[in-house]
Amino acid sequence: MKIAVAGMGYVGLSIATLLAQHNEVIAFDIISEKVEKINKRISPIKDEKIEEYFMTKDLNLKATLDFQEAFKGADFVVISTPTNYDDVKNHFDTSSVENIIQKVIGINLNTTIVVKSTIPVGFIEDMKKKYNIDNIMFSPEFLREGKALYDNLYPSRIIIGEKSKKAEEFANLLKEGALKEDIPIKFMDSTEAEAVKLFSNTYLALRIAYFNELDTYAEIRGLNSKDIIEGVGLDPRIGLYYNNPSFGYGGYCLPKDTKQLLANYENVPQNIIRAIVRSNRTRKKHIAEMVMRKKPNVIGIYRLTMKTDSDDFRSSAIQEIIDLLKDKDVEIIIYEPTLKDNTFHELTVINDFDTFSSKSDIILANRIEDILKPIMDKVYTRDLYSRD
User: Quick one: 2-188 is in which CATH superfamily?
Assistant: First the structure.
């Protein structure tokens, strides 16, 4: 089959790599540097499995800046372009997705469009009515940054937002590329699939917020947070996983998905969803206050990324904490080796770790790495397990 994939972020590149094992895949992106790297089999994002597959697998994968080359004659066009949350409109900005839909309609109405970008509940039905089309479905992704291809090779489930032969065909393509056996596959209408995506990510945000609030309580009361978390988690209904305190949930997905779900709740009774969004703001304010209690003159920020082995710091929790600390009479410096510039939002970036650590009175680290261990007396973190 010929399959086009539009948008070479974590979702798009991992899907393109997965499908290129057994199909002709044309990857479309508007950034020439990404296209050049993919064609040279250099991953434009940090993902160990994608890098491995680029080096070791015979992938039928070509990247292009020409959407007509990508879409013409494609059996499926997978859309994985970014949908950032617009806080003013209180809605996902789905213009990039709709732009690809318009391009596909203009070239080839015989293809099937599969949207993998995160979208509001009801988006697919809106597109069907607006463009008078029926060849479009939604299939959510459940991926981690830096582990995107791994999570496609060993998926927790495959969900397809349609009950049809084409839906079964696409599910089989995903299954064929995966290494995991006995993958749960569920077919449903696209509107329900859209809800699955938002409710899944909001539950994860809820779990993060819960253990963060437990940790806040323990810190304020002078209790052992780890003992409480492990005592709670030994209940098998709760479990000893996804329970590591942090500076708040962040990254590209959880902040925007929780806000979109809250917006979708208009005229529907709820309390929990709003509380999840508010809890994350409260946690960041708490972290900033605890840091300022130590009366530092120079605050060092260790990494802008959300987690270990990631090069992505979009909407990372630490950035909002930085904004809160900027209002205080302190100097803030940043250690972020992925940044080429010497400044970030007018703050000094120091990429020599020894210089950074010697200048800092206190170092904020969302996650502890080996380089920090000799200077833990300077480090402020809530990380208990060096994971998640």
Answer: NAD(P)-binding Rossmann-like Domain (3.40.50.720)
